[in-house]
Specification:
Elements: H1 2-13, E1 20-29, E2 41-42, E3 44-57, E4 62-67, E5 76-79, H2 93-104, E6 113-119, H3 129-145, H4 151-164, H5 173-179, E7 185-190, E8 195-200, E9 206-212, H6 224-238, H7 252-258, H8 265-289, H9 293-309, H10 316-326, E10 331-337, E11 344-350, H11 354-369, E12 374-378, E13 385-386
Parallel strand pairs: 4-6
Antiparallel strand pairs: 1-3, 1-13, 2-7, 3-6, 4-5, 7-8, 9-11, 9-12, 10-11
Helix pairs in contact: 2-3, 2-4, 3-4, 3-5, 4-5, 6-8, 8-9, 10-11
The structure holds alpha-D-galactopyranose (GLA).
């Protein structure tokens, strides 16, 4: 991949003098969905697939971007004096947003950049291709300009840029999982205070399989922000009767006791998901620590049911992938992952069942939905790296 981006860089930008190559992963969340903006826990991991980039400093203030994933867009040009989001800027709103965020935080760039990207995360799949680009951009700025920022700060800057520049009210999970990724480990993160621990994922005789529904989604045009505000309203209603700062502070029993303070059935369901999903995540990590992978799988399945029925972020595509997966012997657990409304499912599948899983779920999906799903057997990888 390094050679591919270098070759393309030379073709597009003339030569490769002073170029460095970088990589940042994508991520998959094993459990803890729509909890990260509710002060709950998440359990994601970085993947070995992600975004590669060749970049170098310029002598003027121009910014030139090229993505091998959006070749039809050609070279998109901008400048450090033009750091405002625009529709015409397309995908470059993500790196531009991070440059803007660095500058907002006092890290001014002395000169512009030429940046060429090539990602192997399917776009819009819910594996965080955009957060990958954000963390990648931060890692490039750190390396090329010598800014003193930690990986955790790269995550926070990425989220800040997405919230403020790209106007998507995302939580911290994606950027954190990517910036803090560790090979063969998932990250058990408490989003209330960003304390975290790494948990080894040793799936004896099983693998993580991602099924991509190929129903495209972008957070901006999804109901993501709507779910977020439903939870905020539910929290405000609960706070009239119980002293809490976030839904993540409630256990199920306390929630049951006070839930009647929430004035609409829809908001009650949203809040119930946020509370119970957080509790499931705690139990799932406990189960994993005990080596009880079967219990972990059951909690993944329960997570999907809650996302389908209470949070209502699945849709026929994700439900078909998951419900077909549940029918197969050797599937330990299966659920949607990411924001939902399209994107991917994550399943833990015994080695000997993987081929059959892909064949059967794939055929049932094609028959019901009318187009094919894609399957990836993935591995857990590290956070961002400079390759050369
Ligand atoms: C998206 C957001 C995350 C998180 C998930 C749902 O991926 O970017 O912050 O809220 O959805 O768990």
């Amino acid at each position: 991949m390094k050679e591919i981006v270098l070759r393309k860089f030379s073709e597009i930008f003339g030569d490769t003098d002073g170029v460095k190559v970088f990589f940042a992963p994508g991520r998959v969340n094993l459990i803890g969905e729509h909890t990260d903006y509710n002060g709950g826990h998440v359990f994601p991991c970085a993947l070995t697939i992600g975004t590669y980039c060749a970049a170098r400093k310029r002598t003027d203030r121009r910014l030139r971007f090229y993505s091998m994933n959006f070749e039809q867009a050609g070279v998109l040009e901008s400048s450090l004096d033009e750091l405002v989001p625009s529709q015409a800027a397309g995908w470059t709103n993500y790196p531009k947003g991070v440059i803007w965020a660095f500058e907002e935080k006092g890290m001014k760039l002395p000169c512009g950049l030429d940046i060429l990207l090539n990602g192997n995360i399917p776009n819009g799949s819910g594996l965080s291709s955009s957060a990958s680009v954000e963390v990648l951009t931060g890692a490039i700025l750190r390396e090329l300009f010598g800014f003193a920022v930690t990986n955790q700060e790269l995550a926070l800057i990425g989220q800040y840029s997405e919230n403020r520049f790209n106007k998507v009210n995302c939580g911290i999970m994606d950027q954190f999982a990517i910036a803090m990724g560790k090979k063969d480990h998932a990250i058990f993160l408490d989003t209330a205070d960003l304390s975290y621990e790494y948990a080894p994922i040793a799936l004896d005789g099983a693998k993580i399989v991602i099924a991509c529904s190929n129903k495209k989604r972008g957070l901006g045009d999804s109901k993501y922000n709507e779910r977020r505000s439903e939870c905020e309203t539910a929290l405000a209603e609960l706070r009239k009767v119980v002293d809490i700062n976030s839904l993540g502070e409630l256990d199920r029993e306390t929630f049951e006791k006070y839930q009647s303070a929430i004035q609409s059935e829809v908001r009650r369901k949203r809040a119930r998901h946020a509370v119970c999903e957080n509790q499931r995540t705690l139990r799932a990590v406990e189960a994993l620590k005990k080596g009880d992978i079967a219990e972990f799988g059951k909690l993944m399945n329960a997570s999907h049911v809650s996302l389908r029925d209470d949070y209502e972020v699945t849709g026929v595509e994700l439900d078909t992938l998951v419900e077909e997966a549940w029918k197969i012997d050797g599937v330990i657990g299966s659920r949607m992952t990411g924001a939902g409304f399209g994107g991917c499912t994550v399943s833990i599948v015994r080695d000997e069942a993987i081929d059959g899983f892909i064949e059967k779920v794939g055929a049932a999906y094609l028959k019901k939905i009318g187009y094919a799903a894609d399957f990836y057997v993935v591995e857990i990888g590290d956070g961002p790296v400079t390759l050369a």
